[in-house]
Design brief:
By secondary structure, the chain is mainly α. The chain is 69% helix and 0% strand.
Amino acid sequence: MGDGELCEVIPKSMRNEVIEKLLSLGKVGGWEIGRPVAESLGKLKNIIPQSMGKSVIESLLKLSRDSDWGVRRPGAWSLGELKPVIPKDMNLEVLKQLLVLSEDYVSEVRGRAILSIGKLESIIPDDMSKKVIDRTLYLSRDPDWMVRRPAAETLGKLKNITPKDMGTDVLKRVIELTEDSEWGVRQKSIISIGLLSDIIPGDKVGEITGKLLALTDDPNEIIKLASVQAIRRLGERIEKDKIDVVLERLIALSFDLNWLIRRSCALAIGELKNIPENLKTDAVERIINLCDDKDWSVRDASARALGSMSSVISKPLAENVINKLLELTWDFDPSVRDSASRSLIRLKSIIPKAPIEEVNDLLKDQHEHSKTG
């Protein structure tokens, strides 16, 4: 059954018919029919009309109670995918069923259930938040990494519903998970640290920064990348006594062979505040150099980073920065050109006299183009 894979090519005139057919087949249940139906409904999330939401969710709830775990697994996953079409009066029933599935004897079902709970964070009522967080913390200690991994991810996604008196426990557990034996669990826990960055107590920021810096030495590039991205999220919260170490590490990592890491380093450097005077030149010059990177995404990130560094760019370097951004407005990639133009606008107050007319002409041309385009 390939309906889910054909989502984008199903004609509008046939969409209701396709959904109705799946709902009819779903009544049969079982591995051979129920499993692909449950999965297909989740994959068709972008074409399910609101008017059919109730019928679709009722079908998935039934499938998620199937005696075959191979049906319950995609049922749990699809419930998390279909938040836009869940009728408000069914929110509670969906959440309660996912909590039940999070206790399933099959680990893959538990994992899909807790992942879906994270996706449905915005519909979790206040009086259920403690129960949900408790359950997620419990599953983060599951013997199967296929459950710990989504649990680690969900702890970060549930930030907005985490009761204040549970924040410390959540943060402590997420930090512990960065030492998990499975890299997939470590990666998700690091990402969650980034998501939780604005609720980290001030007296813990230094400790967590040090933890993330250590993780950038991990031989696994996925862990290294996640750590740099989490450091970026900490940004201006990084303490002054850690900024020099963080900046030096980010500059070193910006030479990495992996373009994703170079890109993330550029963005992270742009987010740093309180950079010591003796390191400001190093930071700006490295970002200028990254503007010449062979990968367009790194050039784009570097152009964006420069726009965030007005307080770091010294007068002697201002002209180099502006000239580099002007050069990037002619880049072959439209994203790079756009980022360079936006950064020039943000840096207008520091533009030296020499290139000011060129910048004004460029911005005027772009304004006229946007009006006619």
